[in-house]
Design a protein that fits this description.
The chain is α+β, with helices and mostly antiparallel strands and 152 residues long. It has 3 helices and 9 strands; from the N terminus they run αββββββαβββα. α2 (70-82) runs antiparallel to α3.
């Protein structure tokens, strides 16, 4: 594919973080140098946010750079369309303080979603992740080569 076609396949923005209070946290982000992945074994009860562009989450934890092919991007974005992430609510919250949290920011051409939640996610209400959210996490794992991302 030429550069123009690749630009249409690659997101303009991709940032996804998932974690649990006092537990593990994961993050991926599209940076100018590629996709960066982070797996923090213990998140010290803070929601992770990207600290410095291309540097780290929460300060100084090293990132792993991941190569993603055009085909992998295409499959991921098709899955995001199938899961209808573009229609997810802006925020999901069950009122819990010490719980699982997540953030998704994805922009592709003229479509953009900024959403997140604490203790709640898109799909049917259930104890633990909804089946829709599990499918979302599976798509993220597939994109990043089956690396760990949000236990379920």
């Amino acid at each position: 594919m030429n550069d123009m076609t690749m630009k249409q396949i690659m997101p303009d923005v991709l940032e996804i973080t998932v974690g649990s209070a006092g537990g593990s946290a994961w993050g991926i982000r599209l940076a100018p140098t590629g996709v960066h992945y982070l797996n923090v074994p213990y998140s010290h009860n803070e929601i992770l946010t990207w600290d410095k562009p291309g540097d780290s989450l929460e300060g100084n934890v090293p990132l792993e750079k991941i190569s993603i092919s055009e085909e992998e991007w295409g499959r991921f974005l098709m899955e995001m369309d199938r899961l209808e992430v573009w229609q997810w609510k802006e925020h999901y919250d069950d009122g819990s303080e010490n719980t699982t949290w997540w953030i998704l920011h994805l922009k592709v051409n003229d479509k953009e979603i900024r959403t997140g939640g604490t203790g709640s996610w898109p799909g049917e209400a259930s104890r633990g992740y909804s089946s829709l959210f599990k499918e979302f996490l599976s798509a993220v794992r597939e994109l990043i080569g089956q690396r760990d991302f949000g236990h379920f």
